[in-house]
Task: inverse folding
């Protein structure tokens, strides 16, 4: 008799596809939060698989801090064109201009925390009742307790002490008017799984993930890309180094790593040997030990 | 940290593609050493990153602890950190060259039975911790009962803190005997016993030098090798339809595919299948995936099936093989674990979810409640409240197609949803 078993990547894939289909079936107007980072790229790839040969039945929503890597924007636009997707952009800049949020001042100013308001606004305006994201539970301690289907009240808030039980593979997306869900189809994946999957599936990736020459400077132990969006201190020296990025987000708080990894195989080797988590290169989590949890309660992804 | 350190370690990327996935849950009462054990597994399997280590070193120092508290690695939320206890299911990940592991770390207090049930519902294996000094206690019974009720195929009882009982073999044997006597009343298929010290690491990843009398495997070895290939049902073919795929594209004008995740058995192209509830029969025309069509598909694959005939099928329907039918009923008994603050209402109406099917149901009768510490049936007080487990009769507005939970955890499970909450 044949041995019917799936390797762990196939099993994770099957689970994620199952969740994407549940979302399509249970919600009226779901959207997929697309940041251009590797996790949302993988979720999109899974969505293409889940509904093949039909098109992806969701709108993509990009919460744009205005502080982007140009490479990430180019990649996004090309992908949208290639698969005939619908995309909406929720702009932090617009929210600032409208006076909905106030920009942080100073050297460590970051727009990451400002994403919450434009995101909630976009959800409300477009009547999205579910927003899917590429967050994984291995990223950060607070995420380890998040459900696949995470219920949010009418203020977009998450109550970690009052989560719905999630049993077997039965997901319950029932909600009251005004409430919505965040769904995380790749909750059970690790950074390593994501890279292995990208390698296995030969998914094309933004160039930022591979080693390249770039002007960078050091601040509080993290190396950042030089950019027009960051105010440099006089003591900060800008130098050209060979770097790559392990996450791709807002340019002002995404740290680079020195790396010669030029191919997916190199990256996998590097991830296997690396001694810091990818979030270790994100400045926004370092502000306080419980930083992520605080932002999540307020409606962050 | 400034940049990623690259160590000269050769990692075989091909081998990684062929790992198995094992999901396990951990249970123990407060202070049995659960967090320490998980921290130890993560630490000794080199799954802890430098910045995480730095963070817990700093946190340990802040709390005035003299050693690095591995338990802090798994302490997720602020409220818990403040109270120093774990209160919700948290998921952890680590891998060895052989397997990838998902840990559902569940708290052991009585008020959180719902979390324990949640964590156990998808697990292949449960680790139950016992403090060697205290032996079997009420919580041990409760955890074991839940593990058996949820049909976790494998159980490992870790008798922890052996260092505090002078690594004594007799103490270990006594606990094993006591547990076996109790477990004989339960439906547990495969159980293992291990003497360990989570704090010192004995028999967790590395073999203990303090307990030469123990000849069995270490915990990690068991986790890596325990046979999980038969944990899923590959006999009774069940395909709950999740979503109907109708591409509005010219090339696929007449395409009508049924998307779903196989809940049991194997489906092959050409198989004669029956659609429930309609009872119409057809043959499988193709099994479609974006990577190409398949000749056969099995649990737990997610695929899209097309049929030879145009029959009316929608979400909530199920494809099965003609000569292997599930039970089809509108009234049945279930073991129910109540997870709502509001008590179960006799004759109450709820929404029921079963695979991809949703309908309304009414509680016809509450038969008994279980004392989960003694396993005795309570028949004089059958009111079911938060964290109670009991047997009830349910009647649904439409027929359900199900198997016994023993036969198939997916087609044998339901949830009830209170519309008001
Ligand atoms: N001596 C000894 N102490 C242990 C052992 N395992 C855990 N502990 C201690 O027992 C206490 C409770 O452990 P913890 O992991 O927080 O328990 P939890 O509540 O089950 O997560 C801590 O002080 C641990 O250091 C062990 O094997 N030997």
Result:
């Amino acid at each position: 008799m044949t041995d019917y078993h799936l390797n762990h990547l196939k099993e994770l894939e099957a689970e994620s596809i199952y969740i994407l289909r549940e979302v399509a079936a249970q919600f009226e107007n779901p959207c997929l939060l697309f940041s251009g980072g590797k996790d949302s790229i993988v979720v999109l790839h899974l969505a293409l698989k889940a509904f093949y040969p039909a098109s992806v039945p969701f709108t993509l929503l990009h919460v744009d801090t205005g502080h982007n890597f140009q490479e990430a924007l180019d990649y996004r636009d090309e992908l949208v064109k290639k698969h005939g997707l619908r995309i909406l952009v929720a702009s932090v800049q617009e929210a600032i201009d409208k006076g909905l949020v106030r920009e942080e001042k100073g050297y460590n100013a970051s727009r990451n925390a400002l994403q919450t308001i434009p995101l909630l606004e976009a959800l409300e305006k477009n009547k999205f009742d579910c927003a899917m994201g590429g967050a994984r539970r291995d990223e950060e301690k607070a995420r380890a307790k998040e459900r696949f289907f995470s219920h949010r009240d009418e203020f977009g808030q998450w109550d970690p002490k009052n989560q719905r039980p999630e049993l077997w593979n039965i997901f319950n997306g029932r909600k009251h008017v005004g409430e919505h869900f965040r769904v995380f189809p790749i909750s059970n994946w690790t950074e390593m799984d994501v890279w292995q999957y990208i390698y296995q599936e030969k998914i094309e990736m933004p160039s930022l993930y591979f080693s390249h020459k770039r002007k960078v400077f050091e601040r509080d132990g993290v190396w950042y890309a030089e950019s027009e969006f960051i105010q440099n201190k006089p003591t900060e020296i800008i130098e050209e180094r060979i770097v790559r990025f392990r996450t791709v987000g807002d340019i002002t708080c995404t740290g680079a790593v020195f790396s010669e990894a030029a191919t997916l195989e190199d990256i996998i080797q590097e991830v296997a040997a690396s001694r810091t988590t990818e979030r270790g290169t994100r400045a926004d989590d370092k502000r306080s030990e419980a930083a992520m949890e605080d932002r999540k309660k307020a409606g962050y992804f | 940290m400034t940049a990623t350190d690259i160590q000269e370690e050769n990692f075989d990327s091909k081998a990684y593609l062929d790992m198995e996935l094992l999901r396990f849950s951990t249970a123990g009462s407060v202070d049995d050493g659960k967090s320490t054990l998980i921290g130890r597994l993560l630490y000794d399997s080199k799954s802890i990153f430098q910045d995480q280590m730095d963070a817990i070193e700093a946190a340990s120092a802040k709390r005035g602890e003299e050693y690095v508290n591995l338990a802090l690695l798994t302490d997720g939320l602020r409220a818990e950190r403040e109270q120093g206890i774990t209160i919700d299911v948290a998921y952890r990940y680590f891998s060895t060259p052989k397997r990838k592991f998902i840990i559902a770390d569940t708290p052991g207090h009585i008020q959180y039975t719902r979390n324990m049930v949640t964590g156990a519902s998808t697990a292949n294996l449960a680790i139950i911790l016992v403090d060697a000094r205290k032996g079997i206690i009420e919580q041990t019974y409760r955890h074991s009962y839940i593990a058996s009720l949820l049909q976790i195929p494998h159980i490992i009882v870790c008798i922890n803190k052996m260092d505090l009982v002078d690594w004594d073999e007799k103490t270990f044997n006594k606990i094993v005997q006591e547990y076996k006597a109790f477990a004989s009343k339960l439906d547990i298929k495969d159980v293992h016993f291990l003497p360990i010290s989570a704090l010192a690491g004995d028999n967790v990843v590395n073999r203990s030098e303090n307990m030469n009398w123990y000849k069995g495997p270490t915990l990690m070895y068991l986790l890596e090798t325990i046979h999980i290939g038969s944990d899923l049902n590959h006999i009774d073919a069940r395909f709950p339809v999740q979503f109907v795929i109708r591409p509005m594209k010219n090339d696929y004008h007449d395409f009508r595919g049924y998307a779903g995740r196989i809940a049991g058995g194997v489906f092959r192209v050409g198989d004669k299948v029956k659609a429930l509830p309609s009872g119409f029969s057809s043959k499988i025309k193709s099994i479609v995936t974006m990577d190409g069509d398949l000749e056969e598909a099995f649990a737990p694959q997610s695929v899209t099936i097309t049929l030879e005939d145009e029959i009316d099928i929608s979400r909530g329907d199920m494809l099965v093989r003609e000569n292997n039918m599930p039970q089809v009923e509108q009234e049945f008994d279930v073991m129910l674990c109540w997870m709502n603050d509001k008590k179960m209402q006799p004759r109450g109406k709820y929404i029921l979810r079963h695979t991809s099917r949703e309908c309304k149901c009414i509680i016809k009768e509450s038969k008994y409640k279980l004392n989960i510490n003694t396993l005795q049936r309570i028949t004089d007080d059958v009111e079911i409240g938060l964290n109670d487990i009991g047997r009830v009769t349910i009647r649904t507005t439409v027929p359900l197609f199900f198997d016994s939970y023993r036969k198939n955890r997916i087609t044998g499970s339901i949830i009830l949803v209170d519309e008001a909450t």
Observations:
- The pocket of guanosine-5'-diphosphate is lined by residues B 28, 30-36, 71, 160-161, 163-164, 197-199 (CB under 6 Å).
- The radius of gyration of chain A is 19 Å.
- The first strand of chain A starts at residue 30 and ends at 33.
